[in-house]
């Protein structure tokens, strides 16, 4: 802040100097004219020459200043240069009451005294911006006047010298007050300018966000209408279908539209949950090579079907981040790379770079034009798909990748050449090998759910059936109920205590999932863990879990995620 004060002060002072050097030269010229008959001519001309030199040096400094690139960082240098010229001017004017003091002429004495006082008043105005310049000019000048008057020795002159001393002290006090006022005014203006600029930035961000939201909704509306439109037409044709084969053919097309609709809803839900901060990262140490190998094997068949090579070079160890979210990021990048590559292949690499691990996905695809590399992470932005053909993707994959990277604080970058391919790079923090071993041992110990008794409460019969099928497949004994009362009755009939409770958050208008789990744990044991599942928007999942004591999962829940949370709850 001090640098900005100095910069503005120097601006003001040098602007005033640049305005009129000849008017400043006129004052010492008048002094010489008045004293011409009283003082030696050589002394007068020498004094005038020195004074003109100081004035021209100051004027030249002002010219250089205005043509230079001055910033608040080097403004102090220019302030010091001005101060030196003030000292030179002050010493020259301090010589006037000594050299030009005509003992037998009151009029000449009064002239010099009035002139010095006038000049000191003008220096106060400059000093409000540059106090050092004021001190270097006024103190020598007025001190010389005080000293010369004291030398006269009479009561009148001594009294006058005391008045001049008082005037000097008052000028210093006034200068300090004016300097404080100027600085306060500058600070207010800086704050006002900063607030105005911040408001403009926020307004621009809000406008851009509104435009982005409008584009997002327009694109989403279009992509949602397309499969619905297809289904409407197909159902109309289906009504008139006569043969079983024709109905099957039409139903298969309806199924394709339903799949497209479901995929779009899932992607839109992912974007919405990420924007609403409803997805929280669960950091862990894990072997990145194992994850990359798993994903390369997963996409191997797809690559072979397109005649592409998919290879993985492993040379890294442990990383620390959210494994499931990183898996989604890399899966999206691999899927994109395969989609936009027609010949050659896709290469996955992972190598150490200092304290970081650089994960990269290379492809030999069509490449990305330089002007598009900044916008490929926007929603619904697709290359070479202006007509929004659903078979060429939804345009949400990289938008989700970007949001997940922001959530995990992972820098992501892209380099690409049209016709040569692209490489997406992600920097990961290195993890601990010892913590990877400990985590894997813990997972292996608790992974088996065989024989576990789980109570599932949900008012949707389809969800209950699906949960019962899934949990039974994992080897669990499952008790299901659609109300709290039926759940209590079912547990009592079974004669066994559940190992965990799973409930929908919104059971009915009377009882919530939180209340149901509270009742069940009060009845069967406070140590039994509870898990809640909901389709509602929960702004802060971590705060919800801390306040209720129950793990919260948002629909749709991936089976792997559900199993992981059950494991964690049982192990705790």
From TrEMBL:
One of its GO terms (molecular function) is phosphorelay sensor kinase activity. CDD domains: HisKA, REC. Keywords: Kinase, Membrane, Phosphoprotein, Transferase, Transmembrane, Transmembrane helix. It comes from the Bacteria. Residues 219-432 form the Histidine kinase domain. Gene3D superfamilies: 1.10.287.130, 3.40.50.2300, Histidine kinase-like ATPase, C-terminal domain. One of its GO terms (cellular component) is plasma membrane. The chain crosses the membrane at residues 20-37, 43-61, 82-102, 108-126, 157-174. InterPro entries: CheY-like_superfamily (IPR011006), HATPase_C_sf (IPR036890), HATPase_dom (IPR003594), His_kinase_dom (IPR005467), HisK_dim/P_dom (IPR003661), HisK_dim/P_sf (IPR036097), Sig_transdc_His_kin-like_C (IPR004358), Sig_transdc_resp-reg_receiver (IPR001789). It catalyses: ATP + protein L-histidine = ADP + protein N-phospho-L-histidine. Its EC number is 2.7.13.3. The modification 4-aspartylphosphate is found at residue 504. Residues 453-570 form the Response regulatory domain. PANTHER family: HISTIDINE KINASE, TWO-COMPONENT HISTIDINE PROTEIN KINASE. This is histidine kinase. It comes from Solemya pervernicosa gill symbiont.
């Amino acid at each position: 802040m001090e640098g900005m004060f100095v910069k503005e002060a120097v601006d003001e002072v040098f602007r005033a100097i640049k305005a009129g050097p000849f008017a400043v030269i006129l004052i010492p010229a008048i002094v010489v004219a008045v004293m011409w008959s009283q003082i030696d001519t050589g002394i007068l001309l020498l004094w005038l020459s020195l004074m003109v030199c100081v004035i021209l040096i100051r004027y030249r400094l002002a010219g250089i200043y205005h043509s230079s690139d001055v910033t608040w960082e080097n403004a102090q240098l220019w302030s010091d240069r001005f101060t030196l010229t003030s000292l030179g001017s002050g010493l020259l004017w301090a010589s006037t009451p000594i050299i030009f003091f005509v003992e037998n002429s009151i009029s000449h004495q009064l002239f010099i005294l009035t002139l010095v006082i006038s000049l000191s008043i003008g220096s106060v105005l400059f000093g409000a911006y540059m106090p050092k310049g004021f001190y270097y000019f006024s103190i020598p000048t007025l001190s010389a006047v005080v000293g010369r008057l004291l030398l006269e020795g009479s009561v009148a002159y001594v009294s006058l010298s005391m008045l001049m001393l008082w005037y000097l002290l008052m000028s210093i006090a006034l200068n300090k007050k004016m300097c404080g006022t100027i600085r306060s005014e500058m600070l207010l203006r800086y704050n006002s300018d900063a607030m105005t600029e911040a408001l403009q930035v926020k307004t621009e961000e809000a406008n851009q966000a509104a435009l982005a939201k409008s584009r997002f909704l327009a694109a989403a509306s279009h992509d949602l209408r397309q499969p619905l439109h297809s289904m409407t037409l197909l159902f109309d044709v289906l009504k008139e279908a006569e043969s079983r084969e024709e109905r099957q053919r039409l139903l298969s097309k309806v199924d394709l539209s339903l799949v497209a609709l479901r995929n779009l809803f899932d992607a839109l839900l992912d974007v919405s949950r990420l924007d609403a901060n409803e997805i929280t990262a669960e950091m862990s140490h894990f072997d990145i090579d194992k994850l990359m190998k798993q994903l390369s094997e997963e996409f191997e068949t797809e690559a072979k079907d397109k005649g592409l090579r998919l290879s993985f070079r492993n040379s890294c160890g442990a990383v620390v981040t959210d494994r499931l979210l990183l898996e989604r990021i890399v899966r999206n990048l691999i899927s994109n790379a395969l989609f936009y590559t027609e010949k050659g292949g896709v290469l996955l690499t992972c190598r150490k770079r200092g304290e970081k691990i650089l994960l990269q996905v290379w492809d030999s695809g069509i490449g990305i034009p330089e002007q598009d590399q900044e916008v490929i992470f926007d929603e619904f932005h697709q290359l070479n798909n202006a007509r929004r053909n659903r078979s060429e993707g939804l345009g949400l994959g990289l938008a989700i990748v970007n949001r997940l990277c922001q959530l995990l604080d992972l820098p992501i970058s892209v380099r690409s050449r049209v016709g040569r391919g692209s490489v997406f790079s992600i920097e990961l923090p290195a993890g601990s090998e010892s913590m990877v071993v400990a985590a894997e041992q813990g997972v292996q110990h608790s992974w088996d759910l065989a024989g576990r008794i789980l109570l599932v409460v949900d008012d949707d019969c389809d969800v209950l059936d699906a949960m019962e099928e899934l949990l039974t497949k994992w080897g669990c004994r499952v008790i299901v109920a659609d109300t709290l009362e039926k759940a209590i009755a079912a547990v009592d009939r079974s004669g066994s205590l559940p190992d965990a409770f799973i409930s929908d958050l919104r059971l009915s208008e009377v009882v919530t999932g939180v209340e149901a789990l509270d009742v069940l744990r009060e009845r069967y044991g406070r140590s039994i863990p509870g898990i809640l599942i909901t389709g509602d928007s929960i702004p802060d999942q971590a705060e919800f879990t801390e306040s209720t004591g129950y793990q919260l999962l948002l629909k749709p829940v991936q089976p792997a995620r559900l199993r992981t949370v059950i494991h964690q709850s049982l192990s705790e």
